[in-house]
Amino acid sequence: MDGGDSVTNQSINTSRRQLFTRRQNSEYPHLPWAKQAQFTDLCTQCAKCIPSCPEHIIQPGDGGFPTINFQKGECIFCYQCAQACPESLFYAQEEPVWTAKAIINDSCIAKQNVECRSCGDMCDTQAIRFKLAVGTVAQPNIITDDCTGCGACVSVCPTNAIQIKLT
């Protein structure tokens, strides 16, 4: 490089490098009951989990690793993906599902003072509650202890303001 062309770490897109290192973004859950920290080491990308999902939310992701697309629906925690997997990728069904929780970002239209409660209406565990406030519409509040990370709230959000992330 000549003196005028310098590359900083901020300008390098490292997300594509994860394909070659078999590492995925560990911020998002892979599959329920999956050994999240060892997922890319144990998964052989056989895709047997994909057709086993009755909700059709498992799809091939980066590098062929299965991933959950909450835009297609919610996880009903049926354990069928784990039963279809020939590898020792999953914990027993009696173990906790995962530590994933819903997170609502600032693009939520309720935070823009527009009435919307679609996420709360879809939450079976009532983990998303709305706090009344004077002079504004009710604001969503996630009770993390009640959130299962099922993703039912994700696909109904009109602004894609909800993500399911590992805590």
TrEMBL record:
Binding site for [4Fe-4S] cluster 3: C147, C150, C153, C157
Binding site for [4Fe-4S] cluster 2: C75, C78, C81, C85
Main location, first listed in the record: cytoplasm
Amino-acid positions noted as binding [4Fe-4S] cluster 1 in the UniProt annotation, renumbered to this chain: C43, C46, C49, C53
Keyword Repeat included in the entry's annotation: yes
Cofactor: [4Fe-4S] cluster
GO cellular component: cytoplasm
Source taxon at top rank: Bacteria
Domain 4Fe-4S ferredoxin-type residue range list: 34-63, 64-95, 138-167
Gene3D superfamilies named among the record's database cross-references: 3.30.70.20
Physiological role: Could be involved in the maturation of NapA, the catalytic subunit of the periplasmic nitrate reductase, before its export into the periplasm.
Subunit structure: Interacts with the cytoplasmic NapA precursor.
Protein name as it appears in the record: Ferredoxin-type protein NapF
Organism: Vibrio algicola
